[in-house]
Amino acid sequence: MLLAGLSTGHMIGLAVVGGTFIAFALGASFLAPRRWPDFPGEHGLPVFVIASIVLFASMLTAVMVFGVESETAKGAEAVSSGKIVQVQEKEFKILPASYKLAAGTVTFAVKNVGKIGHDLSISGPKLAKKTALIGAGGSAKLVVKLAKGTYTLYCSVPGHRQLGMKATVKVS
Q: How many angstroms separate the CA atoms of 172 and 170, rounded?
């Protein structure tokens, strides 16, 4: 699972459920047997088994619910012509990593969620354009007319593209 693709709320949800599961497991393994040598005992075994199954099912449910990437982290989003495409930049990624777009005018709404400055450049068939440097927490827009073909989005700050700040745009 790619944690960077999870929203803060999803990470917190996974941490709370996982922490509860771990606390129960450690308590049942190490603490309870020290206090009660015959733990869970003859009468406590059914309760212990039910609690274990409930916590296990809760953890599986949490992973299915909270383990979903946020919309901006999903790749290959289909966007029609004339639309605004949300792009996030951070060290050293562009999210999503791939796009499928229809030919026409597209506005890339760029948000720098990283801690250092980035820009957004696009290159492809008869096109090379970029934004100004976007400071940490800043945003910018890049309006381009795309023809059919494959384009590359990248950060042109020296070294950033080589560190993984690039994405593919396929236009049909």
A: 7
Residue from 34, 163, 32, 10 nearest 90 by CA: 163
Of 114, 120, 113, which Cα lies nearest the Cα of 99? 120
Distance, in Å, from the CA atom of 159 to the CA atom of 91, rounded to the nearest integer, reads 11
Q: Are 133 and 103 within 8 A, CB to CB?
A: no
User: Helix H segments across 36-168?
Assistant: 41-66
Classify 150 as helix, strand or coil.
Answer: strand
Q: pLDDT per residue over 111-142, tens digit each?
A: 999 999 999 999 998 889 999 999 999 999 99
Quick check: 131 and 106 in contact, CB under 8 A?
A: no
Q: Which residue has the higher pLDDT, 108 or 74?
A: 108
Beta strands, E only, 34-147: 77-79, 84-90, 93-95, 98-101, 104-112, 121-124, 127-130, 139-146
CA 21 to chain centre: 24
Tell me, yes or no, if the pTM score tops 0.90: no
pLDDT above 90 as % of the chain: 45
Residues facing residue 104 across a β-bridge: 146
